[in-house]
Batch of 4 targets.
Target 1
Amino acid sequence: VVPLLWAVLALPAAAQQLATWASLAPSVEPYDDPFAEMPFEQIEALRIIARADMAAAAGQLDAAMAEAAKQARRRAEEAGLDVEALFAQRALIMQRREEAALGVTTTHLDQTVVMDGYALPLRAEEGWVVEFLLVPWVGACVHTPPPAANQIVHVDYPEGFEAISLFTPIRLEGRLTHRP
């Protein structure tokens, strides 16, 4: 979770900037994904090669794995694949996906904004929720796969509020900051 902290919990939306969930994620440069429609056999050949490369780097490459990698490389090259270029593109894809999931845009940072979402309580004191995650949809992180880290807002609200239901939308107003 990329912690984003809110200072104030407010019911009515003041004339503050509305921060949408999409506006929290940074824009990421587009990239080609040659793996998206690549046949399974070619992906499997690349996996064998990559696994052997990692084993060799760790000093753990045995003869059977080396032979399997040699055969897989031959099949890949016969299919017209540039193995090294594909591995370089894989690294770029992983970097861009990480940026998209973990990066935070500076659009709203250190500004007072209004944001809508659902509270996922983390800590309560005397029946009042004092710490929670603001998430974009009902049940996020509980009943569904979690949203990307830059789509979760960590909220400390010492005054607390009474949680009526996880299915009740809430509106927050506060200063948005980022602490990795």
Target 2
Amino acid sequence: MDNFNDIIDMYLKIFPEEKERQEKILEFLDDEKIEDKIDWNNFDGHLVVGAFIYSKKSRKFLYLYHKDLNMYLYPGGHIDKEDNNILDAVFREIKEETGISDLNQITIAENKFIPIDIDTHMIDENKRLNLPSHYHFEFRYLFSVDEEFEKITIDEKEIRDFKWISIEELSLDNNYGKIIEKIKKIFEMFKNLDIM
């Protein structure tokens, strides 16, 4: 499994202004083995992954309704001990929740393991899985697909619905916070390339 401290160090070289924002995850990673950081029974928190999937043709993002959280969000979830690295976890979660496997990763660094964002947020109690409230330390990645899928294979245990929405619509969702501004800057950087 990856050295998450190294990933965060490289991330902070790109986003040095986030040093204070990343203090909690660095503190979380400081004192235990990585196996403990992905363990669902560690109620200090878990390392998780998220994926923003962008359709180049429609210029829209995939938006999933997560049953446990009662809200629309991007695909994502927990890192499993069977995952060889963090990107394996991202691709596995995307495949499990949507059935999508043909994706292009949009990277902000030569090292493809560096996410476009790292976010710490509190997850409310999950009564279905009997989990108390806890932190998620989320590594977020950006992907593109050529066009939006009219039908995707959603994981009906976790996902109720899906839709594709514009970045303007996403920016109205408080759960997305500052990530929208980052994505807009990335789009601006790559606007002359075929990946967008």
Target 3
Amino acid sequence: PSESSAAPAREFEIVYEDDAMLVINKPAGVAVHGGSGISFGVIEQIRRARPEARYLELVHRLDKDTSGLLMIAKKRSALVKLHEAIRNDHPKKIYLALGVGRLARDKIHVKLPLFKYTGAQGEKMVRVSEEGQSAHTILRVLNRFSGGLLYQAGLSDLTYIEATLKTGRTHQIRVHMQSQGCPIAGDERYGDYQANKRLQKIGLKRMFLHAAELHLNHPLTGEPLKLAAPLPPELAQLLSTLKNQQAV
């Protein structure tokens, strides 16, 4: 049997769909496609769930542990147009992230080039390096948490951030936040190991990174689209716990 026939059919929460494209709200913990030890991902599962669909291709990627908006083209013409838009850094992509630490300012433009390399276990890694590709992320603080519950859990500061991608490099937000001394909560690759263990005790079982908004022009009609996926319940729950303890 081929790789895709092994994929169980699965439908995902649909945020937008027409005959040109499909945008889903991807859960955390699901790879977008098979490969590197994973026999199937979102795209194989959707193809399996829609045997009648003639064309389904990923437009871009999300890391396995990131949740949120994922675009899938249903026509080759739409894929070509969306790729063209991405090359011109057009779709505005807004993410929500919780950082471990304090961001110095309420709004920071991080413009640090990113270089891809292979880690010790053969995993894809990225670091800031002059040899890398240019990358630009805008980080804006939405909320700051400290004391109380965090203090009891052995954590100092947490910063809730809206990250807007101006370029779309691999692991861009994760490495850019790490570069600001504020790595993403629950990030096993670029995060703070001790802090992540402590965060698990207060309910964070995954990386706190969510692709929340996508602003783009429809690939075929040019109509402006503003798509949004709410924070998954487990992340929203942690935020409300943090907010409630602030109020004490």
Target 4
Amino acid sequence: MDSRFRGNDKVAIFKGTKSMTLFQDAADKLVQREAPLATRMRPHSFDEFVGQEHIVGPGRALRKAIESDQLPSIILWGPPGSGKTTLAHVVASITRAHFISVSAVNAGVADLRRAVEEAQEQRRLYGKKTILFIDEIHRFNKSQQDAILPHV
């Protein structure tokens, strides 16, 4: 990432591989049952996703890329409440990708390295893609941005 990506409320999604395991599915269901109500009610498909039709409506390029699991690394930009986090979750759900969320407000290079290692393990063990969701990415300094650059 370079300085042109700095600004308010920006998010990055980086993708890796694909698949599902019995144990991971059970763990995900347990976490889902204990999650806050807003998280449990979050949309999991485009049928449930409201708004942003001009970007992810039927036939739009971004939606086609997501549905065909051909989405490259992307940065979503917009004001709070515009659906960036929800869209990232929808992408993970549709592509059946492992989802890792990091906040740039309190994450450092060590956290990014752990996330990359986790993504590599998911790929190696389960053949599963990973979406690394970095909230507030504009808060990362150059060395933090450089830590993820080779994986984009």
